[in-house]
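Hi R.,

As promised on Friday, here is the backbone we talked about, encoded as structure tokens. Could you run it through your design pipeline when you get a chance and send me back a sequence?
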């Protein structure tokens, strides 16, 4: 039996990229992950496939698990000899009750480690354009729980002392008691004109910031429907927001974007859109799988010296081709003197990563673009190998045959619909989506098959972005409209077109 070990990990304030490197490693090695509602669920994508995940999230007035039950669960899972990661929003020891969980483990002689997280008390004001300290404005900041009702008879918070402080006051979990907090501070002498701000869902694409004064911030919050989770910042530093508001000025700030690429490929597109402020929802509609039978493929790969040209039409094709060579222990030099063609810049980069230089790259990244570029370069009687997907368009094959080339197609990989639930997609679409991105005809076809014709009305008001004309035509053939089409048929081109829309 393995030795138990528990990591109490701070997941940061909301943006999954703000977790520490050490925290991410704890997710990757865990056998069991207990996470709460303020920890970004996207972090669970980094877990081991077989890892157990348990949502112990606690919302105001609704506790899936009490704190005592969470403590007991940590102990029980650890005693099974498992590595347990407790994933908590913010920092475990900043109003995160991490100390209580650590003490429960200590009492049971279970070894544990606390991994600090970036606290929302600092990060959320930062993303709102508000530094908690600033020279000549505020030389200290104070973090206070806003969860406690200030009107109770024996409050643990000394509002009289807080009202006299010149530094920045940051209240966590306090939006439900905003009225009482502001009244208490003013009652004890804090100026009613003191600047104040509320930041909802800080560091995420849904961040919303409102500002006012101690006197009117309650009305401002109500008018803008600010709810939990939000933090309250009180102090002169709030006035710096007008010059330092960097996050909410990003071009895609507040936009919710659905990415339909394979989970393995989604990261690059998601990252670029996220850097522009978008909130990314990944819902892969295709999965890349190996062929069910390699017999005919292997016969071709074992005789590569007989080809004068090899044409790669996707990054997936490059990966599958070289993975199979490695599996068969076929030397890359078996390609011989064959000229290499790549359909686009991403495919070219994938080949170069394998140490293979590209001889031909079309100006237009389509099958038709390859045919135009190949005029006079692929001659009659020359043998051409096309390692491609099982459902690839046949326009390239037909065009090469018209040139007199001898074509050998191998379906080096399969594209299939991944296991996913229609109700999950419907739920995503019901939650005010702004854009859906399609990077291939397969992603579009499978998307509609998963969604179902009867639910197409859920796409009303959602803008559809296509990586190029071939994908765009497929989308239109499916009865949908293309709102954005990339000028350059690459991920960078697609992101650029969405940004400029």
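Update: got your reply. Pasting your designed sequence below so it's all in one thread:
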């Amino acid at each position: 039996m393995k030795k138990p070990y528990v990591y109490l990990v701070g997941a940061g304030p909301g943006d999954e990229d703000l977790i520490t490197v050490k925290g991410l490693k704890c997710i990757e090695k865990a056998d069991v992950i207990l996470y709460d509602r303020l920890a970004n669920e996207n972090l669970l994508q980094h877990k081991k496939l077989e890892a157990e995940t348990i949502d112990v999230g606690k919302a105001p007035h609704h506790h899936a698990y009490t704190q005592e039950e969470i403590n007991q669960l940590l102990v029980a899972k650890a005693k099974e000899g498992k590595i347990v990661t407790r994933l908590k929003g913010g920092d475990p020891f900043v109003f995160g009750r991490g100390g209580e969980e650590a003490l429960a483990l200590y009492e049971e002689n279970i070894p544990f480690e606390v991994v600090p997280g970036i606290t929302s008390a600092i990060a959320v004001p930062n993303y709102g354009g508000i530094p908690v300290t600033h020279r000549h404005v505020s030389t200290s900041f104070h973090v206070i729980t806003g969860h406690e009702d200030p009107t109770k008879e024996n409050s643990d918070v000394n509002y009289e002392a807080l009202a006299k402080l010149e530094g920045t006051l940051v209240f966590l979990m306090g939006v439900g008691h905003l009225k009482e907090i502001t009244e208490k501070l003013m009652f004890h002498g804090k100026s009613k004109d003191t600047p104040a701000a509320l930041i909802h869902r800080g560091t995420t694409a849904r961040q919303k910031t409102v500002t006012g004064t101690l006197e009117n911030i309650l009305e401002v919050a109500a008018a803008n429907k600010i709810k939990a989770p939000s933090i309250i910042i009180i102090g002169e530093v709030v006035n710096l927001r007008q010059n330092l508001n960097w996050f909410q000025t990003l071009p895609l700030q507040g936009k919710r974007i659905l990415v339909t690429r394979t989970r393995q490929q989604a990261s690059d597109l998601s990252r670029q859109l996220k850097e522009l402020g978008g909130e990314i929802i990944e819902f892969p509609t295709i999965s890349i799988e190996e062929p069910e039978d390699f017999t005919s493929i292997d016969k071709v790969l074992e005789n590569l010296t007989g080809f004068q040209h090899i044409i790669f039409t996707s990054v997936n094709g490059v990966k599958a081709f070289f993975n199979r060579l490695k599996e068969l222990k076929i030397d890359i030099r078996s390609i011989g003197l064959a000229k290499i063609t790549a359909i686009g810049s991403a495919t070219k980069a994938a080949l170069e990563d394998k140490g293979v230089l590209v001889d031909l790259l079309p100006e237009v990244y389509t099958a038709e673009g390859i045919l135009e570029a190949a005029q006079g370069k692929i001659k009659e009687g020359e043998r051409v190998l096309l390692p491609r997907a099982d459902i690839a368009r046949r326009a390239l094959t037909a065009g090469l045959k018209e040139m007199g080339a001898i074509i050998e197609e191998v379906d080096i990989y399969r594209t299939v619909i991944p296991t996913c639930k229609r109700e999950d997609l419907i739920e995503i679409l019901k939650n005010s989506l702004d854009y859906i991105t399609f990077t291939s005809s397969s992603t579009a076809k499978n998307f509609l098959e998963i969604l179902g014709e009867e639910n197409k009305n859920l796409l009303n008001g959602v803008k559809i972005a296509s990586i190029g004309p071939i994908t765009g035509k497929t989308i239109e053939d499916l009865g949908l409209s293309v709102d954005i089409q990339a000028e350059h048929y690459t991920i960078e081109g697609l992101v650029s077109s969405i940004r400029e829309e």
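One thing I noticed while checking it: DSSP finds 18 helices and 22 strands in the chain.

Thanks again,
M.
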